[in-house]
């Protein structure tokens, strides 16, 4: 796979380089020069999820990795199911929350961990990441016990839910967690400082594992094929998929899927009140507002860093603007929609409800609709129970994590303190 930097096309990299580097020069993201359609999509759709996903990823990555290596990586990464549930006539929910941390981020994080373990020739690698919730848990579980790789996770002390926190702070081993006396922005600032510190960067072999990494995106392409494979054949070509969007990585993966031959009619990227892209679609002006806190907090992003990738596919007519929708759902409507879905007998958390509403607003009459459930309702227990007036059972991974002690250390929001600590511990 040959990629170029969307802000500076003279920077060309291989897949391996793009995975190791993450972000390109001038904060530009890497994107494939071209995407070749798959041959015989019908035969692919007949295969099981892991076999098909290995073929799709081999096709995308190309000859940089042998097919049997990719197959092995996929088998390790995708060791939990994807479920398509019909919640109302012709309306399907794609459940992506059956992984170890109960959110779709497990797919990308686990495949990225396989990639880094594969590309690493015995060098020391340290994943340093700040989390406001779901990413930390997905990354920690994905890299847990991977040889030669340490993970350092910073989170704002007391500002994330106990369930979110316990999903990564209870692992131990190569997962090192710090509760920072400060905000999420303070945590991000500490990470930024570390990446500017050449000594720390080279001594520890820093990598951020954040959501702009191309390995996470290509992994996510696979479950869109699984969704369509589980749909009756006659409904496939015109199906409409709605993706709850924050950083726009997930919908980018759907679009890459469509470009390489996924039978799908239309795509919706549905946001919460942080509606930079929906407003851009109306007047083509890019005017991000200050980020607002929402019930769907994993989508509280006003400058989505995967948007340049989506826009490049639309501007190059790889996917038609006519088939792409982006609308927003406000806080009041998010709650109303959660209650509407409850009427069908299904329980959706806020992110999932937003995807459902994107479908209701934009789908053509008669077309099958698929909305993505990106997190298990129990991950957002308080808001779900409060809004729907129900009690949720705790799924096993969450109950297990809650029963274990937190192994995080407290640290001040002070770069010198962090620097001393991680150099002492990891070099
Ligand atoms: C991260 C996340 C999203 C947003 O996905 P993007 O790829 O950033 O658009 C939606 N829902 C949940 C539960 C998430 O954790």
UniProtKB/TrEMBL annotation:
InterPro entries: Ser/Thr_deHydtase_PyrdxlP-BS, Thr_synth_N, Thr_synth_N_sf, Thr_synthase-like, Threonine_Synthase, TrpB-like_PALP, TrpB-like_PALP_sf
Top-level taxon: Bacteria
Single biological process term from Gene Ontology: threonine biosynthetic process
First-tier enzyme category under EC: lyase
GO function term, MF aspect, one: pyridoxal phosphate binding
Keyword field: Amino-acid biosynthesis, Lyase, Pyridoxal phosphate, Threonine biosynthesis
Catalytic activity: O-phospho-L-homoserine + H2O = L-threonine + phosphate
Enzyme Commission number: 4.2.3.1
All residue ranges annotated as the Threonine synthase N-terminal domain in the record: 8-78
Gene3D superfamilies per UniProt: 3.40.50.1100, Threonine synthase, N-terminal domain
N6-(pyridoxal phosphate)lysine sites (modified residues): 105
Pfam families hit by this protein: PALP, Thr_synth_N
Pathway entry: Amino-acid biosynthesis; L-threonine biosynthesis; L-threonine from L-aspartate: step 5/5
Cofactor section: pyridoxal 5'-phosphate
Cross-referenced PANTHER family: THREONINE SYNTHASE FAMILY MEMBER, THREONINE SYNTHASE-LIKE 2
Protein known as: Threonine synthase
């Amino acid at each position: 796979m040959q990629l170029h930097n969307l802000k500076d096309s003279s920077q060309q990299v291989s897949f391996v380089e793009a995975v190791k580097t993450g972000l390109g020069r001038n904060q530009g993201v890497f994107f494939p020069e071209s995407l070749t359609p798959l041959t015989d999509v019908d035969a692919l759709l007949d295969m099981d999820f892991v076999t098909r996903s290995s073929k799709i990823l081999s096709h995308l990555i190309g000859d940089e990795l042998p097919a049997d290596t990719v197959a092995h990586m996929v088998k390790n990464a995708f060791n939990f199911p994807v479920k398509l549930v019909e919640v109302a006539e012709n309306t399907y929910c794609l459940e992506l929350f059956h992984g170890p941390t109960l959110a779709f981020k497990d797919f990308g994080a686990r495949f990225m961990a396989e990639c880094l373990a594969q590309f690493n020739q015995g060098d020391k690698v340290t994943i340093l990441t700040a989390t406001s919730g779901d990413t930390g848990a997905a990354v920690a579980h994905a890299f847990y016990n991977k040889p030669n790789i340490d993970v350092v996770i910073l989170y704002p002390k007391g500002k994330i839910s106990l369930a979110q926190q316990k999903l990564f702070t209870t692992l131990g081993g190569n997962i090192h967690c710090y509760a920072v006396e400060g905000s999420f922005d303070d945590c991000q600032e500490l990470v930024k400082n570390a990446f500017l510190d050449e000594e720390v960067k080279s001594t520890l072999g820093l990598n951020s594992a954040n959501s702009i990494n191309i390995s996470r995106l290509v992994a996510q392409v696979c479950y869109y094929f699984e969704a369509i494979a589980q749909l009756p054949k006659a409904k496939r070509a015109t199906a409409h998929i709605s993706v709850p969007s924050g950083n726009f990585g997930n919908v980018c993966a759907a679009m890459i899927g469509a470009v390489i031959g996924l039978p799908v009619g239309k795509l919706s990227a549905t946001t919460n009140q942080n509606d930079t892209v929906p407003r851009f679609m109306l007047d083509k002006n890019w005017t991000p507002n200050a980020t607002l806190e929402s019930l769907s907090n994993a989508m509280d992003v006003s400058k989505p860093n995967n948007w340049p990738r989506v826009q490049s596919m639309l501007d190059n007519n790889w996917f038609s603007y006519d088939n792409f929708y982006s609308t927003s759902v406000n806080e009041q409507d998010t709650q109303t929609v959660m209650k509407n879905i409850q009427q069908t007998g299904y329980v959706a958390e806020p992110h999932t409800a937003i995807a459902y509403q994107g479908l209701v607003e934009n789908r053509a009459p008669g077309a099958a609709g698929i909305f993505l459930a990106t997190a298990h309702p129990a991950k957002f227990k308080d808001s779900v129970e409060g809004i729907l007036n129900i009690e949720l059972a705790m799924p096993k991974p969450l109950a297990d994590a809650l029963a274990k002690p937190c192994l995080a250390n407290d640290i001040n929001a002070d770069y010198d303190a962090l620097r001393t600590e991680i150099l002492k511990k990891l070099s």
